[in-house]
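By way of example, what follows is a protein record of this kind.
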Amino acid sequence: MEFDQRIAFTIFLVTFLGFFLSASQSYTFYVGGRDGWVLKPKEDYNQWAGRNRFQINDTLIFRYKKGYDDVLEVDKDDYYNCNKENPFLALKDGESVFKFNRSGPFFFISGHADNCQKGQRLIIVVLHPRGNPTDAPSPVAANPPSPSPSPSPAPIFAPTPSPIKPNTPPPAAASPPSPVIVQPFAPAPSPSAASIAFGGLIGSLLGISFFLVIFAFGY
């Protein structure tokens, strides 16, 4: 009986840790900040969206006066035409919550009167999931040295007799060619402190879970 209880506790703990790790990667954004979802915010909604990065599982919160405004999720054409007739979703409760379940663009407009035509609309572009290899910085390639041009053969002229001058100094020796310096490869960028700290947290939590599993099965 005690063994079964330990197994059940271990499963619960591992499930909780998995939920914690997934939830810790999502963020909540209040559209318009303190202004909320209004006709004339202090900052244009699309400028506000351009300053932020949105990921799958992030959440938008629209705050507005219930009964005097609403939020419609529409397609691209309806967004630019301010068409309110065929929305994917209509939010009207005064503090509407919208969670991103995919990557790509999302289009929102106000369904109240002609607010959309006056600028109360928003485009959000959700990035691909975190950890996508395409998000990693590209390695910096060293610039290869350019090949030195080969010396052209000197033209051959017929010798012209000249008077012999006494004590003529010998011609100066040609200076040796300068060595070609090859630029080394630039080192790859080191991971940020935040990435290292988050990785350490994940490793610690998984280590604790593994220890508890071993402890439960060992007894």
